[in-house]
Each structure stands twice: as structure tokens, then as C-alpha cells.
């Protein structure tokens, strides 16, 4: 299972306003493509209107098209310079769907995400150690309990006072109860480099999952640090690789696939 995008925190039951984050869903959507290339079937949980596998490569899709001058029977085609790229990506997308290897599920709010995650875990639990949970969604850290939320739109007559509560850490029941045999990867994004590794290790020690992928906000597209209980090491792209359109998610997924195979093998031996 791969996740993508952020969750919203409604401020009213009849929601007009909400708290959000900047996540566009890049890491999750790109990684889903590479997991499919590696032969995995992917449940892709994503925020509505965030990036999706394959289509994320055509953010301005109309710019790729041309239409004939025949007003009665217009013919729409892809511009010649984009035809090969569109055809390649479309084939990969159709192959994933035809083989039943890609299931896309959408969420918007935190509560929708949590219920969807629980249901997905129930579906994956029978796979045992064959399941990977790639928890790349930007889940909100704070929320407003339902009984403290305004029913209608908060009046704009003056600045409101809003009391936010900490969201319970869902990793605890996920790892210990929902999918106890799965290979679970969480993410840690920081802006202070001095806190990055210590927070990643704190999460591993607290929730007892397999890996944390730690990254800095400013360099997240070029470098990540893979943190396990025993080791830590960097995966990175050079400036030249980045300029050439290479994606660090390919390095991440390749690394995880190797680790997952060893994880399955160690369970079989034991």
C-alpha cells in the first residue's frame, strides 16, 4: 500500500474552512509507479486532487493535444513531440489496471483517511509478511474533536479562538494489531537537521516498525536517509541526475524491495 497527499482538518461540521498542509502527493504517486514496475500490486490511497500515478506526469494535459479544423467531426490527437511519452505511460497504466494491480482510493479529511487506512490494513493482513505499508501521506498532527466543532460556518466578525488536540498516533495499533507481520515504512520530514535522525529513531523505538525514511524539507527531492534500528544511510541524486529528470523515489523503492525480500526470507528461516 502506498499513500499520497495530506489530510484536512475541518473547522465546522458544515465545512467551509479547514486546516491543511502543502503536500501535493509527489512522493507517494511516483513511488507507486516504481512499486508497480517491481511487480507489486498497489493500493494507492491519495488525497482527492493530489497527484496520481502516471497522470501526474501530465499536469497540463491540454497542452499536449491538438484538434483538427473540421468543426463537424473534430479529431483530437497528441502533438507529435509528446506521442511516444504519452503512449509509453498509457501502456503502463493500462497494464496495471488490466492485471488488477492498481486500486486507487481517495480521502480528504483526517477521519476519512483513518477509516480508509483501517480498512486497507484489514484487507492486507492475510498477506502477512508479503505486504508493504509505505506511509507517505502527510497526516495532520492536530484536529478538533467533533463535539468541539462549530456546526455552521464560524462567524467572520472577529478572529476565532480554536483549540487543537493532538491526533492519536495510528502507527501503534497498525504495527501491533492491524498488520503485525507487514513490512512498515513511515516518513519523517523536518526543517531542523539536528532533529531529523533523533526523531526518526524515537519513532522506531516507540512503534517498533521496520524503517523510517527521513528527509529535510529543503532537499527532500534529492536526498533521503534510510533509518533502521541498526543503521542509517543516505540515498541521493547528484545535481546532474536531478536536472536530467531522475527521481529519488526510484532509489528508495529499489532499496525497499531488496529489504522486503530479506525480511520475507528471514521470517521463513525463523
UniProtKB/TrEMBL annotation:
Database matches in InterPro entries: CoaB-like_sf (IPR035929), DNA/pantothenate-metab_flavo_C (IPR007085)
Gene3D superfamilies recorded: CoaB-like
Record domain DNA/pantothenate metabolism flavoprotein C-terminal: where: 130-224
Gene Ontology MF terms: ligase activity
Keywords assigned: Ligase
Protein's GO biological process: coenzyme A biosynthetic process
Pfam family, one: DFP
Family affiliation: Belongs to the PPC synthetase family.
Stated name of the protein: Phosphopantothenate--cysteine ligase
Organism name: Ooceraea biroi
